């Protein structure tokens, strides 16, 4: 954090980073579960 940065700025940046990381992770989980669902539903 820069010396002249505010605590609010640091919290927003770190919170945004965590939120974006979790969003990407959950999208990956959804895509993986969807692929597994299609694979397991295939009668062949």
Question: Please, what is the average pLDDT?
Answer: 92
**Largest sheet descriptor:** none
Question: Strand pairing plus helix content: what structural class?
Answer: mainly alpha
Q: Report the uncertain regions.
A: none
Shape, principal axes of CA atoms: rod-shaped
Count all strands and give the number: 0
Radius of gyration in whole Å, from Cα? Answer: 19 Å
Percent helix, as a range, is over 70%
* Percent in strands: under 5%
Summed up, the helix count is 1
Count the domains: 1
Listing every helix as H and every strand as E from the N terminus to the C terminus, the arrangement reads: H
Q: What is the end-to-end distance?
A: 56 Å
Structure report:
By secondary structure, the chain is mostly helical. The chain has one domain. The protein is 80% helix and 0% strand. It is built from one helix and no strands. It has one helix at residues 7-41. The chain starts with 6 loop residues before the first helix and ends with a helix.
List keywords for this structure.
1 helix, 80% helix
Helices, strands, pairings?
Elements: H1 7-41
Give a quick rundown of the structure.
The protein is mostly helical and 44 residues long.
């Amino acid at each position: 954090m820069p010396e002249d940065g505010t605590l609010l700025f640091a919290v927003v940046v770190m919170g945004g980073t965590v939120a974006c990381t979790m969003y990407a992770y959950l999208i990956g989980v959804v895509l993986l579960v969807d692929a597994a669902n299609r694979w397991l539903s295939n009668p062949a």
